[in-house]
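Hi there,

I know you've been waiting on this one. I reran it after we fixed the sequence typo, so this is the corrected version. Both the input and the resulting structure follow.
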Amino acid sequence: MGKLVQTNQKMKVNIQNSWGDQIFSITSGLVLAIICLLTLLPVVTVMLNSLTPTKDLVNNPNSFIVIPSYITFNHYIWLFKGSQRIFTAYTITILRTLVGTFLCLFMTVVTAYPLSKKYLPGRNGIMKLFFFTLIFSGGMIPTFLVVNGMKITDTFFALLIPCALNVYYMIIMRTFFASIPEEISEAARIDGASDVTVLFKIILPLALPSMAAIGLFYAVFHWNSFMDVVMYINKRSLWPLQMLLREILVTNDIGELSLGGLIQDAARPPASVITNCTLVVSALPLMCIYPFLQKYFVKGLMIGSVKG
């Protein structure tokens, strides 16, 4: 028996130290390292350029990455010093992200929970309708006509109502609700709890990982979205940060950020630097929030994707 155990241990050591495993590990490590570098390179470049003094940028006009002689935040100070437009855009973006994420999560939950119950009348037919909208859509022009017919163009509601529910995320949440044993809900109903009480007091606490993952997806969508603003919003006072950034990148002009003659300021940084600062400002909040919610991603999505 002892010889058999020693033989198995030797076989395991030989398998672990085989040339194939070593080559595979080295190759996988190199490929992952290259992918990480390619992913981080644009981020590092933008952040370095936003923190580099103007003198260093002028002295190295053709360099892809300029190593700053010292770190300066003067570009960010200039960006926020005289431009009320960016404060307004930031406010609209934050407000849209908070309200839109809450509305989308609420609509997803109240739609997915009833559809997860087999006793719901017409359940299969309703799900077929949702599947149809997941595969086919009316298109850009019919959607605009519907929004315009609702008289919500050039209002804040145009950024919330048309995207209040994502069918794919609703299906994930529905699958999760269906995986919860029905005995839990039945026990609560025997004690006198209504369906609303069962949902908000019992089911939702169990669904926090899935809701955190889906909520972050909704938040990223609302934070980065600008196409619906192009379609439905003409008032510049309702422009979110991403729309303002798009306007700067498309026109290659930072006049949108200037008030009170600030564009003629002798200390004004180059337009490319201000663009980089705006990119950092627009991406930094999500970069700070993501690490705290990352642990819910795999758990939440796998729970909502696999039933059993």
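Quick highlight: The radius of gyration is 26 Å.

Best,
R. S.
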